[in-house]
Predict the 3D structure of the following.
Amino acid sequence: MSNLIPEPKTIQDAKRQIDRQDKAQKMSAMGYTARQFKTTDKAFYVDGGKETYLVYLYPSVHCSCPDFSRHKDCCKHVFFVIQEAMDALAYEAWGGDERAEDEGLL
């Protein structure tokens, strides 16, 4: 996916990453949002579930959720923030108009 995401070491790790990516894709429809932490573009709050979690993308990937703490691997919140950032970049690249949505990029 990107240099932010570590390569899975085992098949179980790979399956867990795929599961987290699938969950992240559903989060927007479930009302989750990602908003910048203070004035940095390297940390984000993820709201929408039972808790609000803080996701850092730099200098290393980290999330304050229990899943990340337990597995030390990317959780659905990290994948969600990356997905939202990629959507925003695609929207900008298309000039901020509706063409990006029409073309199925967002």
In short: The CA atoms of residues 10 and 100 lie 36 Å apart. The first strand starts at residue 33 and ends at 36. The chain has one domain: 11-102.
